[in-house]
Amino acid sequence: MGTRIPGRNFLFVPGPTNVPDRVQRAMMVAMEDHRSSRFPELSTSVLSDLKKVFKTTAGQIFIFPSSGTGAWEAALTNTLSPGDKVLACNFGQFCYLWIDMAQRMGYDVEALDVEWGEGVPLDRYEQILKADKQHKIKAVLACHNETSTGVTSDIAGVRTALDAAKHPALLYVDTVSSLGSIDFRMDDWGVDLAVSGSQKGLMLPAGLSFLGVSQKALAAMKSAKSKRCYFDLADMIKANASGYFPYTPALPMLYGLRESLNIIEEEGLQSIFHRHTYLAQGVRAAVTEGWKLKLCAKAPKWYSDTVSAILVPEGFNGAHVIDVAFRRYNLALGAGLSKVAGKLFRIGHLGDLDDLRLMGAIAGAEMAMLDIGIKVTPGSGVGAASTYWRTHDPIPKRKSSKEEQFYTAHSTGSIQG
């Protein structure tokens, strides 16, 4: 067995993402009493600042020591009763897993099959909702960013479909791989339950899940009859009111979250969204212009700014690219899952990331493809990405001098809130 190349592993899966040094240092804390009178200073500050990331003033945020899957379960069980009808669509592995959970928990799921590479079918949703005159559908599920295929859906469009049908169903959205990376507006889009996790745009290790809950969803808890215990929001509401949790919280993770939220505040959400678009466009230039390959996403309107799923040519296995990249170049790329297993590999481009580090991932993926015989022109991906990044502005342009002053103040950290 050969030894691994020295140096840091290049982590470019779409989660977990790279954890900033500042966040890692913040988590290196001595254990303390989570019942102390000082603890609420930490808990209330992170719960308050998470509302800014979810873009909600009316909703309430909950933190669970779990992966995002736990928040999926919390969203369903706290607001639905066994047998309730759920409308969902399957266009990727994580859509499928949420549907599978809902079915296993006893809900009546109408799951629409959608071609993998597309997103939420707004017209079909609207037709079904309009036809549901008796309002039997209690929940509408949508995945904002489907990581397995690199597809982002129009959540504002889902809200428009619900409103056009004058339908009272609750809107549940998976924002695990979009929150803090792609614009998400809980209040503006009328999202009732927004699920997320710590290991993507929030730049933390896996281990915390987040659930944004609207006032309408909180009211629905009163009649929901699903059994729940660990994920019971009633227990959370009671304990959170005084700044505590109903069970032992993940203390170091909360300190890391505090620092992550500081970093997000300093850069500013709009600048973060612009940076992710800027980085993603460079990767897409490498794929389509440099390598002459195709993305799994079927059209530009579906392109994700947090992950690109790159189809390998016929006769090649994406898993082979991933294996060579890891063993030879210490580069971790995302695998194709389920229906697209072996058909693609994925480059995650979210969280704590810039163009130079991303250039390394493009170079490594290109070398791994060449190693297994995929006929791409050496240097073509790096060249195309370089051309894009050199000719585009990594800083969002402002339309007015007032906005420019605001951005400058934010970038220097002189404005808080």
Question: How would you portray this structure in words?
Answer:
The chain has 417 residues and is of the alpha/beta class. It folds into 2 domains: 130 residues, Aspartate Aminotransferase, domain 1 (Alpha-Beta Complex); 245 residues, Type I PLP-dependent aspartate aminotransferase-like (Major domain) (Aspartate Aminotransferase, domain 2), CATH 3.40.640.10. The chain has 14 helices and 14 strands. The strands form 3 sheets. Strands 2-10-9-8-5-3-4 form a 7-stranded mixed sheet, with helices on both faces. A 5-stranded mixed sheet has the order 1-13-14-12-11, with helices on both faces. Strands 6-7 form a two-stranded antiparallel ribbon. α4 links the parallel β3 and β4. The chain is globular, with a radius of gyration of 22 Å. The C terminus is likely disordered.
Which features would summarize this protein structure in a list?
417 residues, alpha/beta, Aspartate Aminotransferase, domain 1, Aspartate Aminotransferase, domain 2, 2 domains, 15% strand, disordered C terminus
